[in-house]
Amino acid sequence: MLNIKPHITEKSVNLVKASKYTYLVPRGAKKSEIEEIIFRTFKVKPLEINIICEKSLSIMRQGKTRSIRGLKKAIVTIGKKDSLPGFEIATEEAAKEKKKVPTEASESIGKVKAEK
């Protein structure tokens, strides 16, 4: 069984609004295996799966060469009505943005503009 982890970045949080969820997957994982794991784990059938492979990097620091291991990410698209756990932060932020209450300063600015 594959081990997948949510990959939470600013870009992936913005993709949640479009029902696209980003996961880190093992380098040998195939789309069919990822689809099966998503369905077994979350009981949601993915509409589309896109794979992104990032290359490994070699960095020289203080005279020593170090390598940074590359990543393999899966962007899973699901239906608009479905949601996947692990990205609750994104949905909470979106709810807070919708419920913003105007502050006293913005109200006074609106009054000044109305008077002119």
What do these coordinates show?
- The chain has 116 residues and is α+β, with helices and mostly antiparallel strands.
- The chain has a single domain (5-115), classed as 2-Layer Sandwich (Alpha-Beta Plaits).
- Helices cover 36% and strands 26% of the residues.
- The chain has a 4-stranded antiparallel beta sheet.
- The longest helix is centred in the first third of the chain and has 12 residues, at 31-42.
- The radius of gyration is 21 Å and the shape is flat.
- The N and C termini lie far apart (67 Å).
Number of E-type strands: 6
Low-confidence stretches: none
Under CATH, the homologous superfamily reads RRM (RNA recognition motif) domain
The overall pLDDT, averaged over residues, is 83
Percent of residues in beta strands: 25-35%
Largest sheet geometry: 4 strands, antiparallel
Considering DSSP H and I runs of 4 or more, what fraction of the residues is helical?
A: 25-40%
Radius of gyration: 21 Å
**CATH hierarchy, class:** Alpha Beta
The count of domains is 1
Number of distinct helices: 4
Dominant shape: flat
Q: Helices and strands: which structural class?
A: alpha+beta
Written as H for each helix and E for each strand, in order along the chain, the element string is: EHEHEEEEHH
